[in-house]
């Protein structure tokens, strides 16, 4: 399944995208992550429910600089990603 996720909180300028990429690659997930102009981070990811829950739990743990307040997740039409990449 492909999920569209919006991350809200202190998620820009704190290494959140790189952390997301590292976690996704550890779980062998494919997709993208990018900053949005409104301060959120947008994630598209191919994952089963178990891996999605693992990713979400790790994102909420965060790093020493980030603070994740909310993740809005919804299932969307499948997108075929070849890898997980940070979009700049």
What's the quick description here?
The protein has 88 residues and is α+β, with helices and mostly antiparallel strands. It contains two helices and five strands, in the order E-H-E-E-H-E-E. The N and C termini lie far apart (24 Å).
Please, could you describe this protein's structure?
This protein has one domain: Alpha-Beta Plaits (2-Layer Sandwich). It is 27% helix and 39% strand. It is built from two helices and five strands, in the order βαββαββ. The protein has a five-stranded mixed β-sheet with strand order 4-1-3-2-5, with helices on one face. A hairpin with a 5-residue loop joins strand 2 and strand 3. The chain starts with a strand and ends with a strand.
Spans with pLDDT under 50 lasting ≥5 residues? Answer: none
Structural class: alpha+beta
Oligomer: single chain
Mean pLDDT: 98
Q: Please, how many domains?
A: 1
Q: Give me the CATH fold name.
A: Alpha-Beta Plaits
Shape descriptor reads globular
Give keywords.
88 residues
Q: How do the helices and strands line up, and which of them pair or pack?
A:
Elements: E1 2-10, H1 16-26, E2 30-35, E3 41-46, H2 49-61, E4 67-76, E5 84-86
Parallel strand pairs: 2-5
Antiparallel strand pairs: 1-3, 1-4, 2-3
